């Protein structure tokens, strides 16, 4: 059963977690798995139960170590600053919550208090991100750094490869925001639509600037993030035609102040 069926601590060991562990690519003892999935709101309603915040703290450190050593090895020509920006993007709340949804399908397994559950906590970016980190912490405790390294690579290698192709500005959404600000325009906003069957959904993102009703561009993808990146890339090129000079995402941070002059 899912976490939303688990009303008392006695029921927690009945969580049907085989699918989750298969997607995670690791085994975790039932007790430690329950610990990793227990949000503080659930622990508050069940006195004596530990929440997953200490495991989250541990997993965050493991995730940072593995992502750092990977980027350091794969990109010997990049500066410390460029590596730090890529790592920040790869382990960001946005990236980890996407992993939670798309790879782990994690939401239904998280143990939440009634109020948090009723407010949609099982799909909140912050909770999904934190729970991914707590699971990594649990894998580290059970299997050590080598076991944790395998799990981290399974989860984030695609993201690490993706941010490596996006340049120091990290992604097209970041680049579009810099470009818009440099032209004195408002913050980009995205309107989402979803089509297709649940097992093969297509996301369409349409990007606008501020309160403007005229869209800049649209993009499609197999996830919300991919659709927004596709739309942002097209919008960036559209805005670039309005700029007094031609630049590109790789040096957008450097040129933002120049564009705004």
UniProtKB/TrEMBL annotation:
Residues at which Mg(2+) binds: 56, 130, 133
Where is the stretch described as Disordered?
Answer: 214-261
An example GO CC term for this entry is: cytoplasm
Query: Which EC class is the enzyme in?
Result: hydrolase
Asked whether the keyword Metal-binding is assigned, the reply is yes
**GO BP: any one term:** rRNA processing
The molecular function terms in GO held by this entry are: double-stranded RNA binding; metal ion binding; ribonuclease III activity; rRNA binding
Span of domain DRBM: 171-241
- Keyword Cytoplasm listed? The answer is yes
Which NCBIfam families does the record associate with it?
Answer: RNaseIII (TIGR02191)
Q: What HAMAP family does the database record attribute to this sequence? A: RNase_III
Assembly, in brief, is: Homodimer.
What's the protein here called?
Ribonuclease 3
């Amino acid at each position: 059963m899912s976490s939303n069926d688990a009303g008392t601590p006695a029921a927690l060991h009945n969580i049907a977690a085989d699918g989750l562990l298969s997607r995670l690519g690791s085994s975790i003892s039932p007790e430690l798995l329950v610990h990793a999935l227990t949000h503080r709101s659930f622990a508050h309603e069940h006195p004596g139960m530990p929440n997953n915040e200490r495991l989250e703290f541990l997993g965050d450190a493991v995730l940072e170590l593995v992502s750092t050593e990977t980027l350091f090895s794969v990109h010997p020509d990049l500066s410390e600053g460029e590596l730090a920006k890529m790592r920040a993007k790869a382990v960001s709340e946005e990236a980890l919550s996407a992993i939670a949804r798309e790879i782990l399908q994690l939401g239904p397994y998280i143990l939440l208090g009634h109020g948090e559950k009723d407010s949609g906590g099982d799909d909140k970016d912050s909770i999904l991100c934190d729970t991914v980190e707590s699971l990594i912490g649990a894998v580290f405790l059970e299997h050590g750094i080598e076991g944790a390294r395998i799990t981290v690579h399974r989860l984030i290698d695609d993201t690490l490869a993706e941010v490596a192709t996006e340049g120091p500005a990290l992604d097209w959404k970041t680049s579009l925001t810099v470009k818009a600000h440099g032209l004195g325009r408002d913050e980009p906003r995205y309107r989402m639509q979803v089509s297709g069957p649940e097992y093969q959904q297509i996301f369409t993102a349409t990007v606008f600037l501020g309160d403007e009703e005229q869209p800049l561009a649209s993009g499609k993808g197999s996830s919300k993030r991919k659709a927004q990146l596709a739309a942002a890339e097209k919008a960036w090129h559209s805005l670039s035609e309005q700029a007094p000079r031609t630049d590109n995402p790789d040096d957008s941070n450097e040129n933002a102040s120049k564009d705004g002059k």
